[in-house]
Amino acid sequence: MDTHQIIIKPIEEVAKYKRTLIPAHISEMYALKPMYENITSADTIRNGVIAFRDFLYLFFDRLIEKGQLYAKPPRKPTGMDDYPFLHYITNILVEIGYNGKLSENEDILVVTKIPICMATIDENGKKKGAKIPAYGLVESLRFLELCGFNFVDINLDVKLLDISEAQPLKVSYPNNSILLVGLKALAIADIERRKGRAYWNDHYLLRCNYKMLKVKETDIIDELRDFLDPLSEKVQSFALKLHQRYTKKGLTCTLSILDDTSFSYANISDRNKNLSARKKYQKRIWAFSNSIRNGYNLFVKSTKTEKYADVIERFPPSLRKKIEDGYGCYRKLGRERCQADCQGIRLPLDESILDIADDIEIWIDNEIPHILK
User: Fold this and answer.
1) Dihedral angle sign, alpha carbons of residues 42, 45, 51, 53
2) 3 lies in a domain?
């Protein structure tokens, strides 16, 4: 068996997971960054964002129902949710929003270019193909039409579509045209976020990450509440209590959005306060995480358990065994395919964790003093 092989999840499972990443609660009262003031009124933008969020629920519902007809896995996937179709449709939406000009009534986006779907000439005069192939464009537009978009005067019954022949492209969303305003604002924010980054997640738009539009940075506790929203109230209370306990003890909480979403807790000195989120994550002692691989989990990356072995002996057998087994790369341990257990000792963040809630606090309480030395 090839232990390096990545087993991609069915598209309906990917859609169900990504649907949980959409913010359930979006404030209608937040100040926008000045760069969005020339789009339209602030109230219209905020309502447009909510309309786009509601569209995303429909988008993922359609993926669950019909995604297998559109989204095909690549021959060599790089991740469990690596569907080129999702990359195509996300980036096409971003470019429609970014390059589109709102009509006077704000019910149509007029798009004169979608660079990602067009061939280019480099500085040496060499022609380079479009980043999104013609079949990817037509499939994406068909699916968006299935979700309520309308593309005026375009024949989507063809196998391949040359976007240069369809310009200007007029895009509407008849069911709720204010969505186009939300799309434009979010697309501008997405393009701005990508600038100067060696790595970026091109599925930000599918999360409806409206917080990128805000003047004031969202408090980490509010980010955590949004993250925990799909979980039961008791599990949410446990997680929030843990957050408050260890931030009061001086640990820094950092939000990271890469292939998974993580809230990591680390001892960050004053001289390291400006480290990137990735670097802070690498210094974590423990973290909350939600991923396509394992769902919601609490990870503890304990390295000093030999210093308090007598404490661990008093834990319930199931927890004690997990700690004794430790963590590390599954491939190097010769077990099975990668389970992301290099992240730490994994505890499912569900009702089962409530039975060992006190033990988890005792465990981390005993780990921290040895880390801080």
Assistant:
1) negative
2) no
